[in-house]
Amino acid sequence: xxxxxxxxxxxxxxxxxxxxxxxxxxxxxxxxxxxxxxxxxxxxxxxxxxxxxxxxxxxxxxxxxxxxxxxxxxxxxxxxxxxxxxxxxxxxxxxxxxxxxxxxxxxxxxxxxxxxxxxxxxxxxxxxxxxxxxxxxxxxxxxxxxxxxxxxxxxxxxxxxxxxxxxxxxxxxxxxxxxxxxxxxxxxxxxxxxxxxxxxxxxxxxxxxxxxxxxxxxxxxxxxxxxxxxxxxxxxxxxxxxxxxxxxxxxxxxxxxxxxxxxxxxxxxxxxxxxxxxxxxxxxxxxxxxxxxxxxxxxxxxxxxxxxxxxxxxxxxxxxxxxx
Length: 324
What we know:
Layout: E1 18-27, E2 30-39, E3 45-51, H1 62-73, E4 77-81, H2 98-113, E5 118-128, H3 131-141, E6 148-151, H4 158-172, H5 177-196, H6 199-209, H7 215-218, H8 228-236, H9 242-245, E7 252-257, H10 267-280, E8 286-291, E9 299-300, E10 305-306, H11 308-322
Parallel strand pairs: 3-4, 3-5, 5-6, 6-7, 7-8
Antiparallel strand pairs: 1-2, 2-4, 9-10
Helix pairs in contact: 2-3, 4-5, 5-6
Protein backbone atom coordinates (compact mmCIF):
# COMPACT_ATOMS: atom_id res chain seq x y z
CA UNK A 1 0.00 0.00 0.00
CA UNK A 2 2.79 2.45 0.71
CA UNK A 3 5.82 0.54 -0.53
CA UNK A 4 7.60 2.37 -3.33
CA UNK A 5 9.36 0.71 -6.23
CA UNK A 6 13.13 0.60 -5.94
CA UNK A 7 14.78 3.29 -8.01
CA UNK A 8 18.11 2.24 -9.51
CA UNK A 9 20.51 4.81 -10.90
CA UNK A 10 24.07 4.81 -12.15
CA UNK A 11 26.11 6.30 -9.36
CA UNK A 12 28.71 8.90 -10.07
CA UNK A 13 31.45 6.54 -8.93
CA UNK A 14 34.28 7.01 -6.47
CA UNK A 15 34.80 10.56 -5.24
CA UNK A 16 38.53 11.13 -5.00
CA UNK A 17 38.29 13.93 -2.44
CA UNK A 18 35.79 12.17 -0.18
CA UNK A 19 36.63 9.55 2.43
CA UNK A 20 34.12 6.89 3.48
CA UNK A 21 33.79 5.24 6.86
CA UNK A 22 31.23 2.97 8.49
CA UNK A 23 30.07 4.49 11.78
CA UNK A 24 27.51 3.81 14.49
CA UNK A 25 25.78 5.97 17.07
CA UNK A 26 23.00 5.78 19.66
CA UNK A 27 19.35 6.70 19.31
CA UNK A 28 17.86 5.98 22.70
CA UNK A 29 18.48 2.30 23.39
CA UNK A 30 19.22 1.50 19.74
CA UNK A 31 22.52 1.43 17.90
CA UNK A 32 22.14 2.90 14.45
CA UNK A 33 24.65 2.53 11.63
CA UNK A 34 25.60 4.63 8.63
CA UNK A 35 28.28 5.37 6.09
CA UNK A 36 29.99 8.69 6.68
CA UNK A 37 31.03 10.58 3.54
CA UNK A 38 33.64 13.15 4.54
CA UNK A 39 35.02 15.60 1.96
CA UNK A 40 38.67 16.55 2.41
CA UNK A 41 38.82 20.15 3.59
CA UNK A 42 40.93 22.41 5.76
CA UNK A 43 37.77 24.23 6.85
CA UNK A 44 34.91 23.02 9.01
CA UNK A 45 32.31 21.27 6.89
CA UNK A 46 28.54 21.63 6.77
CA UNK A 47 26.84 18.27 7.16
CA UNK A 48 23.58 16.45 6.48
CA UNK A 49 21.71 13.36 7.67
CA UNK A 50 19.96 11.31 4.98
CA UNK A 51 16.43 10.29 6.03
CA UNK A 52 15.54 7.19 4.02
CA UNK A 53 12.26 6.53 2.26
CA UNK A 54 9.60 3.90 2.92
CA UNK A 55 10.08 0.22 3.67
CA UNK A 56 13.49 -1.39 4.02
CA UNK A 57 16.17 1.10 3.05
CA UNK A 58 19.81 1.50 3.96
CA UNK A 59 23.11 2.82 2.60
CA UNK A 60 22.90 0.35 -0.30
CA UNK A 61 19.88 2.18 -1.72
CA UNK A 62 21.37 3.61 -4.91
CA UNK A 63 18.99 6.59 -5.02
CA UNK A 64 19.92 7.70 -1.51
CA UNK A 65 23.60 6.98 -2.19
CA UNK A 66 23.51 9.03 -5.39
CA UNK A 67 22.05 12.05 -3.59
CA UNK A 68 24.56 11.62 -0.75
CA UNK A 69 27.41 11.61 -3.28
CA UNK A 70 26.10 14.78 -4.95
CA UNK A 71 26.05 16.54 -1.58
CA UNK A 72 29.53 15.27 -0.69
CA UNK A 73 30.86 16.47 -4.05
CA UNK A 74 29.52 19.92 -3.11
CA UNK A 75 31.53 19.90 0.13
CA UNK A 76 28.94 18.57 2.56
CA UNK A 77 29.72 15.79 5.04
CA UNK A 78 26.93 13.22 4.74
CA UNK A 79 25.60 10.57 7.09
CA UNK A 80 24.17 7.97 4.68
CA UNK A 81 22.01 6.10 7.15
CA UNK A 82 20.78 2.57 7.58
CA UNK A 83 17.16 3.12 8.60
CA UNK A 84 16.33 1.50 11.93
CA UNK A 85 15.89 -2.24 11.40
CA UNK A 86 17.73 -2.10 8.05
CA UNK A 87 21.34 -2.79 7.15
CA UNK A 88 23.43 -2.71 10.32
CA UNK A 89 20.97 -0.65 12.38
CA UNK A 90 19.08 -2.12 15.31
CA UNK A 91 15.33 -1.84 15.80
CA UNK A 92 12.36 -2.29 13.48
CA UNK A 93 10.86 0.54 11.42
CA UNK A 94 7.55 -1.36 11.30
CA UNK A 95 7.15 -0.77 15.03
CA UNK A 96 8.14 2.89 14.78
CA UNK A 97 6.15 6.01 14.03
CA UNK A 98 7.44 9.11 12.32
CA UNK A 99 8.16 10.61 15.75
CA UNK A 100 10.55 7.72 16.41
CA UNK A 101 12.24 8.17 13.05
CA UNK A 102 12.60 11.89 13.76
CA UNK A 103 14.42 10.98 16.98
CA UNK A 104 16.75 8.82 14.88
CA UNK A 105 17.32 11.81 12.58
CA UNK A 106 18.21 14.05 15.52
CA UNK A 107 20.52 11.34 16.88
CA UNK A 108 22.35 11.54 13.56
CA UNK A 109 22.59 15.32 13.88
CA UNK A 110 24.01 14.98 17.38
CA UNK A 111 26.54 12.42 16.17
CA UNK A 112 27.74 14.76 13.42
CA UNK A 113 28.12 17.55 16.00
CA UNK A 114 30.78 15.47 17.76
CA UNK A 115 33.02 15.23 14.68
CA UNK A 116 35.98 17.62 14.66
CA UNK A 117 35.67 18.09 10.88
CA UNK A 118 32.06 19.31 11.08
CA UNK A 119 30.68 22.76 11.86
CA UNK A 120 28.03 22.05 14.54
CA UNK A 121 26.02 25.10 13.47
CA UNK A 122 25.56 23.92 9.87
CA UNK A 123 24.00 20.46 10.10
CA UNK A 124 20.75 19.69 8.31
CA UNK A 125 18.44 16.84 7.33
CA UNK A 126 17.66 15.50 3.85
CA UNK A 127 14.32 13.69 3.67
CA UNK A 128 13.84 11.37 0.69
CA UNK A 129 10.27 10.44 -0.25
CA UNK A 130 8.69 9.17 3.00
CA UNK A 131 11.68 10.68 4.79
CA UNK A 132 10.18 13.99 3.68
CA UNK A 133 7.49 13.43 6.32
CA UNK A 134 10.15 12.90 8.98
CA UNK A 135 12.28 15.93 8.10
CA UNK A 136 9.82 18.67 9.21
CA UNK A 137 9.24 16.90 12.54
CA UNK A 138 12.97 16.89 13.26
CA UNK A 139 13.41 20.50 12.16
CA UNK A 140 10.39 21.75 14.10
CA UNK A 141 11.58 20.06 17.28
CA UNK A 142 15.25 20.99 17.30
CA UNK A 143 17.12 24.22 16.61
CA UNK A 144 20.22 22.04 16.08
CA UNK A 145 18.83 21.34 12.59
CA UNK A 146 20.22 24.19 10.47
CA UNK A 147 18.52 23.45 7.14
CA UNK A 148 16.03 21.10 5.51
CA UNK A 149 16.06 19.45 2.09
CA UNK A 150 13.07 17.35 1.02
CA UNK A 151 13.04 15.32 -2.19
CA UNK A 152 9.71 13.95 -3.46
CA UNK A 153 8.14 14.15 -0.02
CA UNK A 154 4.36 14.64 0.03
CA UNK A 155 2.94 17.59 1.96
CA UNK A 156 -0.45 15.91 2.38
CA UNK A 157 -1.35 13.46 5.13
CA UNK A 158 -0.50 9.76 5.08
CA UNK A 159 -4.03 8.57 4.28
CA UNK A 160 -4.46 11.03 1.40
CA UNK A 161 -1.07 10.25 -0.11
CA UNK A 162 -1.69 6.50 0.03
CA UNK A 163 -5.08 6.98 -1.64
CA UNK A 164 -3.49 8.95 -4.49
CA UNK A 165 -0.73 6.37 -4.87
CA UNK A 166 -3.20 3.48 -4.91
CA UNK A 167 -5.32 5.13 -7.61
CA UNK A 168 -2.24 5.70 -9.75
CA UNK A 169 -1.05 2.13 -9.18
CA UNK A 170 -4.45 0.78 -10.25
CA UNK A 171 -4.45 2.88 -13.44
CA UNK A 172 -0.91 1.80 -14.25
CA UNK A 173 -2.09 -1.82 -13.85
CA UNK A 174 -4.63 -1.24 -16.64
CA UNK A 175 -7.77 -1.06 -14.48
CA UNK A 176 -10.70 1.08 -15.62
CA UNK A 177 -12.15 3.85 -13.44
CA UNK A 178 -14.83 1.63 -11.89
CA UNK A 179 -12.13 -0.85 -10.90
CA UNK A 180 -9.97 1.99 -9.58
CA UNK A 181 -12.91 2.98 -7.39
CA UNK A 182 -13.09 -0.61 -6.06
CA UNK A 183 -9.41 -0.50 -5.13
CA UNK A 184 -9.89 2.83 -3.34
CA UNK A 185 -12.84 1.35 -1.44
CA UNK A 186 -10.67 -1.61 -0.42
CA UNK A 187 -7.98 0.82 0.66
CA UNK A 188 -10.45 2.71 2.87
CA UNK A 189 -11.57 -0.56 4.47
CA UNK A 190 -7.93 -1.48 5.08
CA UNK A 191 -7.42 1.82 6.90
CA UNK A 192 -10.60 1.25 8.89
CA UNK A 193 -9.41 -2.21 9.96
CA UNK A 194 -6.04 -0.84 11.02
CA UNK A 195 -7.67 1.80 13.22
CA UNK A 196 -10.76 -0.05 14.51
CA UNK A 197 -10.04 -3.79 14.21
CA UNK A 198 -13.09 -4.37 11.97
CA UNK A 199 -11.63 -7.27 10.00
CA UNK A 200 -14.74 -8.80 8.40
CA UNK A 201 -15.61 -5.97 5.98
CA UNK A 202 -12.05 -5.65 4.75
CA UNK A 203 -11.43 -9.39 4.49
CA UNK A 204 -14.60 -9.98 2.47
CA UNK A 205 -13.85 -7.07 0.14
CA UNK A 206 -10.30 -8.33 -0.47
CA UNK A 207 -11.57 -11.86 -1.14
CA UNK A 208 -14.08 -10.53 -3.70
CA UNK A 209 -11.38 -8.43 -5.37
CA UNK A 210 -9.10 -11.44 -5.67
CA UNK A 211 -11.70 -13.05 -7.96
CA UNK A 212 -11.77 -10.16 -10.42
CA UNK A 213 -9.37 -8.13 -12.57
CA UNK A 214 -8.65 -5.96 -9.54
CA UNK A 215 -6.68 -8.83 -8.00
CA UNK A 216 -3.57 -7.56 -9.81
CA UNK A 217 -3.56 -4.71 -7.28
CA UNK A 218 -5.59 -6.22 -4.43
CA UNK A 219 -3.01 -9.00 -4.06
CA UNK A 220 -0.65 -6.41 -2.61
CA UNK A 221 -2.96 -5.78 0.35
CA UNK A 222 -2.26 -7.86 3.50
CA UNK A 223 -4.23 -11.09 3.59
CA UNK A 224 -3.95 -11.69 7.34
CA UNK A 225 -4.85 -9.65 10.38
CA UNK A 226 -1.44 -10.11 11.98
CA UNK A 227 0.64 -8.88 9.03
CA UNK A 228 3.39 -6.55 10.34
CA UNK A 229 2.30 -3.83 7.91
CA UNK A 230 -0.76 -3.08 10.07
CA UNK A 231 1.48 -2.10 12.97
CA UNK A 232 3.11 0.64 10.96
CA UNK A 233 -0.20 1.94 9.58
CA UNK A 234 -1.62 2.24 13.09
CA UNK A 235 1.32 4.39 14.10
CA UNK A 236 1.35 6.75 11.12
CA UNK A 237 -2.13 6.55 9.58
CA UNK A 238 -3.31 9.87 11.04
CA UNK A 239 -0.10 11.78 10.29
CA UNK A 240 -0.26 15.22 8.67
CA UNK A 241 3.04 17.04 8.00
CA UNK A 242 1.61 20.56 7.74
CA UNK A 243 1.45 21.37 11.50
CA UNK A 244 5.19 20.69 11.57
CA UNK A 245 5.98 22.61 8.39
CA UNK A 246 4.34 25.70 9.88
CA UNK A 247 6.87 25.53 12.72
CA UNK A 248 9.94 25.07 10.50
CA UNK A 249 11.83 28.36 10.38
CA UNK A 250 15.09 26.91 8.99
CA UNK A 251 15.99 27.43 5.31
CA UNK A 252 14.39 24.74 3.17
CA UNK A 253 14.63 23.31 -0.34
CA UNK A 254 11.70 21.15 -1.45
CA UNK A 255 11.92 19.44 -4.85
CA UNK A 256 9.33 17.48 -6.84
CA UNK A 257 9.21 15.88 -10.25
CA UNK A 258 6.17 17.06 -12.22
CA UNK A 259 5.39 13.53 -13.44
CA UNK A 260 5.25 12.19 -9.88
CA UNK A 261 1.64 13.46 -9.92
CA UNK A 262 0.88 10.28 -11.89
CA UNK A 263 2.82 7.99 -9.55
CA UNK A 264 3.51 8.54 -5.84
CA UNK A 265 2.89 12.14 -4.77
CA UNK A 266 0.05 14.65 -5.29
CA UNK A 267 2.52 17.29 -6.39
CA UNK A 268 0.15 20.18 -7.14
CA UNK A 269 -1.70 19.82 -3.85
CA UNK A 270 1.57 19.47 -1.93
CA UNK A 271 2.89 22.68 -3.47
CA UNK A 272 -0.39 24.49 -2.79
CA UNK A 273 -0.38 23.54 0.89
CA UNK A 274 3.27 24.39 1.38
CA UNK A 275 2.94 27.77 -0.32
CA UNK A 276 -0.11 28.58 1.79
CA UNK A 277 1.56 27.50 5.02
CA UNK A 278 4.72 29.47 4.27
CA UNK A 279 2.67 32.55 3.40
CA UNK A 280 0.69 32.30 6.65
CA UNK A 281 3.85 31.82 8.70
CA UNK A 282 5.69 34.54 6.75
CA UNK A 283 8.43 32.07 5.82
CA UNK A 284 10.61 33.60 3.16
CA UNK A 285 13.60 31.23 3.25
CA UNK A 286 12.04 28.25 1.46
CA UNK A 287 12.35 27.31 -2.21
CA UNK A 288 9.84 24.91 -3.79
CA UNK A 289 10.94 23.53 -7.15
CA UNK A 290 8.87 21.38 -9.52
CA UNK A 291 11.02 19.93 -12.31
CA UNK A 292 9.22 19.40 -15.64
CA UNK A 293 9.46 15.79 -16.81
CA UNK A 294 10.82 14.63 -13.46
CA UNK A 295 9.63 11.36 -11.92
CA UNK A 296 9.58 10.35 -8.26
CA UNK A 297 13.31 9.67 -8.23
CA UNK A 298 14.15 12.69 -10.39
CA UNK A 299 16.08 10.36 -12.66
CA UNK A 300 17.15 11.22 -16.20
CA UNK A 301 16.23 7.91 -17.79
CA UNK A 302 18.45 8.48 -20.83
CA UNK A 303 21.56 8.75 -18.64
CA UNK A 304 20.46 6.64 -15.69
CA UNK A 305 21.51 9.43 -13.34
CA UNK A 306 19.93 12.19 -11.30
CA UNK A 307 18.45 14.96 -13.45
CA UNK A 308 20.78 17.90 -14.02
CA UNK A 309 18.05 20.35 -12.94
CA UNK A 310 17.88 18.55 -9.61
CA UNK A 311 21.62 18.33 -8.98
CA UNK A 312 21.99 22.00 -9.96
CA UNK A 313 19.29 22.91 -7.42
CA UNK A 314 21.16 20.95 -4.75
CA UNK A 315 24.45 22.64 -5.58
CA UNK A 316 22.86 26.09 -5.62
CA UNK A 317 21.20 25.54 -2.25
CA UNK A 318 24.43 24.26 -0.74
CA UNK A 319 26.41 27.21 -2.08
CA UNK A 320 23.87 29.90 -1.18
CA UNK A 321 22.55 28.56 2.11
CA UNK A 322 24.44 25.58 3.55
CA UNK A 323 28.01 26.75 3.00
CA UNK A 324 27.36 30.45 3.64
